[in-house]
Amino acid sequence: MPLSLADFASLGNTPITIQSTFFPNVYLRMDGTGVTTFTGPGGGTVNCQFGAGPLEKFKLHTQADGSFSFESVTFPNVYLRMDGTGLPAITSGPGGGTVNCQFGAEPFEKFKLHAQADGSFSFESATAFPNAYLRMVGSGVTASTDSGGGIVNCQFNANGGGHEKFVLNVAG
């Protein structure tokens, strides 16, 4: 059963998964290998995985400003990072920007979670890139692989878009 905003307060350190609503059984994958200190451009790899294994598990952290950050369970203190620099101001097409990992949670690692009518969420950059949303395209991701696949980037003004909606679940 998908998590709701009301569930977030009681999660504590319980791991969650981030699943695409558009691509069946496709999850956000974050490999923080080598991300051991803060660097401006971030590092590691964020893409898609078929099914949820260790790299698809996150801890959801509420920030003081009411936003949320996603910390890797496998790579402690490594967070989901979204950089909307150069993102085209159009609501369709291939998106742009960069989604990767960062050591620590700074502005690029903070998200507003917009609840959708179907119980899913869209993730907007909380402060650094207003109107930039997390976008995940899992085309061709039909089996688990060591390196994952698909595309994870940003989309402009895409609250509730097909590639910009995610279900949050307690990790199994």
Report the sheet with the most strands, covering strand number, pairing sense and barrel closure. 2 strands, antiparallel
Q: By helix and strand content, what is the structural category?
A: mainly beta
Order of strands in the sheet with most strands: 1-12
CATH architecture: Trefoil
Helix content: under 10%
Total count of domains: 1
Order of helices and strands: HEEEEEEEEEEEE
Which band does the percent of strand residues land in?
35-45%
Shape: globular
CATH class placement: Mainly Beta
Describe this structure in words.
By secondary structure, the chain is mainly beta. The chain has a single domain (5-170), classed as Trefoil (Acidic Fibroblast Growth Factor, subunit A) (Trefoil). Helices cover 2% and strands 38% of the residues. The chain has one helix at residues 5-8; strands at 16-20, 26-31, 45-50, 58-62, 68-72, 78-83, 98-103, 111-115, 121-125, 132-137, 151-156, 166-170. Strands 1-12 form a two-stranded antiparallel sheet. The mean pLDDT is 96.
Secondary-structure map:
Layout (H helix, E strand, L loop, with lengths): L4 H4 L7 E5 L5 E6 L13 E6 L7 E5 L5 E5 L5 E6 L14 E6 L7 E5 L5 E5 L6 E6 L13 E6 L9 E5 L2
Antiparallel strand pairs: 1-12, 2-3, 4-5, 6-7, 8-9, 10-11
Give the gist of this structure.
This protein is mainly beta and 172 residues long.
Offer a few descriptive terms.
Trefoil (Acidic Fibroblast Growth Factor, subunit A), two-stranded antiparallel sheet, AbfB_ABD_sf, two-stranded antiparallel ribbon, 1 helix, 172 residues, mainly beta
